[in-house]
Amino acid sequence: MGTAADQWTHTDGDVPARRAGRRLGRWCAGLLFAAVSAVAGCRAADSDGVTPLPQLLAFLPWLLVPTGAGLLLTLLTRWWAGAVWGVALLAALAWYLDPYGRTGDPAGRPVAELRVLTANVEFGQGTGALIAAVRRERPDLVFVQECEDTCDAALRRELAGTYPHRRAVPGGGSAGSVILSRLPLRPADAVPGTMGMPGAVADVRGTPVRLQLAHPMPPLPGQLGVWRAELGRLRDTAAAGRGTPRVLAGDFNASQDHAAFRRILDTGLTDAARLAGADRTPTWPSRTARASFGAQIDHVLVSADFSAGRARFLDLKGTDHRAVLVDLTLYRR
User: Fold this and answer.
1) Cβ-based burial of 152 (10 A; exposed 0-12, middle 13-18, buried ≥19)
2) How many angstroms separate the first and last alpha carbons of the chain?
3) 111: buried, middle or exposed (CB in 10 Å: 19+, 13-18, 0-12)?
4) At what angle do helices 80-96 and 4-44 cross, to 10 degrees?
5) How far apart are CA 171 and CA 155, in angstroms?
6) Which pLDDT band holds residue 11 (cuts at 50, 70, 90)?
7) Burial 321-332 (b: 16+ CB within 10 A, else e)
8) What region, left, alpha or beta, does residue 311 occupy, with left being phi > 0 and alpha being psi -120 to 50 degrees?
9) Cα separations (Å) of 187 from 190, 192, 234, 295, 297?
10) Residues 127-160: pLDDT tens digits?
């Protein structure tokens, strides 16, 4: 057993180590808070920033995890100013978790029920699973992204009898896209983009409904300008259709936490999943989305002429996206 002097010396030697540990903990907390603050700052400024901020914005709800870890470190290291910083970040993130867009039923009388399905089949690899889902769920409108030549041929072969109306932008790899419909369609301009984004006007019991498939480029490093420009073109198309019932559906490669996507919503559109109470349900990547980790980048956006009764997210074998299936009601004012 050591003497009192030995014990005092040992305790005195622990002080620098504890101080170093506290400094390290505070540095780690500060780095976590700084990273989260940059993302939250973009959200507050209504901007998407530069790489890697747009990529991180897609996962904004999950920034609660590093913020919570940083807050724990501030408490363990007794960094009270840092604790205030962490609490402020938690409050900001909680505020932005609130869904963006309107709620409530539109005015007028209901005139038709519509079931809409959108699916990114990942270079056509999920085509078989999509065909099975379409036969099972019997949607009225189907929006298919990354439908390359073999996918397009399979849809024609297997579904043409049930879905005789279609609009497509053919292409290989991720470039091809198709709208399938049980309802009569007439042509509408496609939105120019790197990948196909066909448009159409559906006749829904005498009411014209503007349809637009969405598949802008993802926000890849070095290609943020293309991503913003293509989302901007979708926004312009949506704005030009004001006064007409509209459905925009597809893989937007953006979530409600991206300013460029909110610009589209601000034209009078709402995410049908939001109306159905399923906002922020992840759709990508499908492998982790099943466990509620991921981002909601696949959407069905509708004008104020629609209400949504139910939204479901379907796992399709062969693709990294979940399909979105929504039941809509069209109202006539």
Assistant:
1) buried
2) 89
3) middle
4) 30
5) 14
6) low
7) bbbbbbbbbbbb
8) beta
9) 9, 15, 17, 32, 26
10) 999 999 999 999 999 999 999 999 999 999 999 9
Edge-to-edge strands, sheet with 246-251:
185-188, 199-204, 207-214, 246-251, 298-302, 270-271
What pTM, to 2 d.p., does this model score?
Answer: 0.92
The per-residue pLDDT for range 208-256, each reduced to its tens digit, is 999 999 999 999 999 999 999 999 999 999 999 898 999 999 999 999 9
Could you say which DSSP state residue 284 is in?
B
201 - beta bridge partners? 186, 210
Rg of the chain, C-alpha, whole Å? 25
Amino acid, res. 26:
R
**Residue carrying the six token digits 């936490």:** 257
Q: Which residues make beta-bridge pairs with 246?
A: 210
Report d(CA 94, CA 280) in Å as an integer.
13
In the 8-state DSSP scheme, what is residue 61?
G
Paired residues of 209 in beta bridges: 202
Determine the Cα–Cα distance for residues 77 and 57; give it in Å rounded to an integer.
Answer: 29
Band of residue 333 on the pLDDT scale cut at 50, 70, 90:
confident
Alpha carbons 94 and 89: distance in angstroms, whole number: 8
